[in-house]
Amino acid sequence: xxxxxxxxxxKRKETAKEHGKCMMTRRQFMMYSGAAAISASTVSISLYPGxxxxxxxxxxxxGYPRKKIAALGDFKDNEPIDFNYPDDGPNSSCMAxxxxxxxxxxxxxxxxxxxxxxxxxxxxxxxxxGSYKVVGDQRILGQCPLHLSTYxxxxxxxxxxxxxxxxxxxxxxxxxxxxxxxxxxxxLLFGRDSNL
Length: 196
Fold this sequence. Notes:
Blueprint: H1 2-19, H2 26-47, E1 67-71, E2 81-84, E3 93-98, E4 114-118, E5 132-135, E6 138-142, E7 150-152, E8 158-161, E9 170-176, E10 179-186
Antiparallel strand pairs: 1-10, 2-3, 3-4, 5-6, 6-7, 7-8, 9-10
């Protein structure tokens, strides 16, 4: 067997000379690259001792505004309430809806069926106003007029179909007495590099 390997190595070297390339087996590549990685990490640790000290730093915490959306009595089953959040700037149009007793991820209220989402498709920012649908026990927002993306309102706005690859940003809700408040966002609003 060693003779076969030797013969293969000889042929590989001849081929490498003809092509002017390094002809290495996958096994050789993995062994050499692993050894190189270990060597590099050992050298960097020995050349720069004590440079990986952790420092205590204060975290920068940015709070979302607390904004009243509506009273609990204002919610009618499967009728969205429109509002802007977290500000009145571009791409801040949102909706809140009571899903008619269908429990949802992030839902509030007695039945955990009041949820809120951004109205802009995460693919190219297509408007989703007026596209809320009830299909059996499904609660869907979409289809987006640009590329037909649809989102499942029961499962944190996850993409169901279409070109989008991210869930809709979900507005986090809180109930205080008889009032429903928007208190934060889960996900980045379309067209922004920061929600605030």
